[in-house]
Amino acid sequence: MAAHSQIEAITARIVERSKPRRERYLDQVRSAVSRGPHRAVLSCGNLAHGFAACSPADKADLAADVVPNLGIITAYNDMLSAHQPYETFPAIIREAAREVGGVAQVAGGVPAMCDGVTQGQPGMELSLFSRDAIAMAAGIGLSHNMFDAAVFLGICDKIVPGLVIAALTFGHLPAVFIPAGPMTSGLPNDEKSRIRQLYAEGKVGRAELLDAESKSYHGPGTCTFYGTANSNQMLMEIMGFHMPGASFINPGTPLRDALTKEAAKRALAITAIGNEFTPAGEMIDERSIVNGVVGLHATGGSTNHTLHLVSMARAAGIHLTWQDISELSDIVPLLARVYPNGLADVNHFHAAGGMGFLIKQLLKAGLIHDDVRTVFGHGLEAYTIEAKLDAAGSIVRQPAPEESGDAKVLAKAEAPFQPNGGLKMLTGNLGKAVIKISAVKPERHVIEAPAIVFHDQQELQDAFKRGDLNRDFIAVMRFQGPKSNGMPELHRLTPPLGVLQDRGYKVALVTDGRMSGASGKVPAAIHVTPEASDSGPIARIQDGDLIRLDASRGTLEVLVDAAEFSTRTPASANLEQNEFGMGRELFAIFRKNAGTADNGASVFA
């Protein structure tokens, strides 16, 4: 089915805007293709170093330059539950490569940090910048020019976007992303949230809180709520980087291992040595990017991707803007209710029909482009399936169901949970921001209240505990942008603001920081740009200023006389405490050179 006319129009606009940069990028990709990749360009000394640790058979194959060599970029570590399963993947991939006459080598490892561990801690100030560090680390691994294709083992928040940036920077190589899957369901997310709120109110202690958290995050795999990590997996499938049906299969299962082997074999099948050459830079185009944005809206995905998708697109020479994202949100209905937008987790989403059902619905409604290239071939129709194992242990793909397995979790396009994706751009005299309202009740879409200004999460926590916040207000949390302190997520604000909202007060948050995929029931204008450290208007807000956040109209304004507001001296903040400790001194160059939030907050912009 042809794409919706408005989808086509937005896509065409992105194509036209991107032309100069995209054409330069494709010229570079094609030039790199013409020069390789093959081992023949390496000297004998280069090559000997490159396969010194291989088996004799693999050495012979690589020396002859007649078999494809698969580079593995891995984000494995065994502290992160989502990445722990990757420990065994290289062995599975090597075996799969040998079965089809290829070779596989681990090309390099990249860092993978957990926002759940660093939440509210100094290490969180490295989190966003780790995306660009991951891209560079993956680039180092692939720079040896030993590889005909690459597979990427990564799953969580900044890791996948960083790996995508690297894959598109090395766009002359085919690239397949291999997920590890979500952990099995534990304590329901709404119960975990309830315990967190009780802890914020002082009604339960740390022991009860830790018990609830441990029952929620209890085994290998991604966290089961629909945050950035699981939004990443949705994106990789709908953009065609995954094998069909691969995203949400639990780790440690026969189907998971079979899909991993299949992905490795497919990566070797689409190299320049074969007949289905699919370089990542040619495969991903403006239609692929639009499909990713549509999937994000249809599932109520992470606000972090207003940063990441912009940066990922730029790596392929494509200029995506917040305006594009916001306009697509107005068109795309919400088809999934997964926590924090509902009570279900990603395992329930998968059981209800998952990605196959979702993509089928979006295609039927003309909301995504079918005429795209993927690692599986041409067209997204091939992704409207469920992956299973037959009696012999081989992967079979069956058509996705026509009806949702749980109408409270997955809806049809003609009967959505809400008519839009709930992720909007806000504009006004405070600059630009984004807001996610898919979990915010309609009566809270417009908040007008006096500002209370904070420069630190702990300041708000302390004010809450003193009882100073029992009133209508908009919390302005500034100096949290990329240039200030790396733009940390501000999840410590969610429980106290949620408590105040439940007490009947009108509350909202305005910040140049992030809230990510856990953005929930409290209205939050985030990623405000220009940020306070760039002397943005947010730096001129004073306690008591009336602020109007209107998610319905898409506006964010301080209701102060314009002439008086413009003459105010921007506030300053002592950020020295953010410059040292937990590695923050190593990232000074990132803070200094970070781009604006609407350009992805990247050092590559």
TrEMBL record:
Gene Ontology biological process terms from the UniProt entry: D-gluconate metabolic process; Entner-Doudoroff pathway through 6-phosphogluconate
Cofactor section: [4Fe-4S] cluster
Name of the top EC class for this enzyme: lyase
Domain of life of the source: Bacteria
The UniProt record lists the keyword Iron: yes
Catalytic activity entry: 6-phospho-D-gluconate = 2-dehydro-3-deoxy-6-phospho-D-gluconate + H2O
Presence of keyword Iron: yes
Domain Dihydroxy-acid/6-phosphogluconate dehydratase N-terminal residue range list: 68-381
Signal peptide positions on this chain: none
NCBIfam families noted in UniProt: edd
Similarity annotation: Belongs to the IlvD/Edd family.
Record-given protein name: Phosphogluconate dehydratase
Organism of provenance: Pseudorhizobium banfieldiae
Lineage: Bacteria, Pseudomonadati, Pseudomonadota, Alphaproteobacteria, Hyphomicrobiales
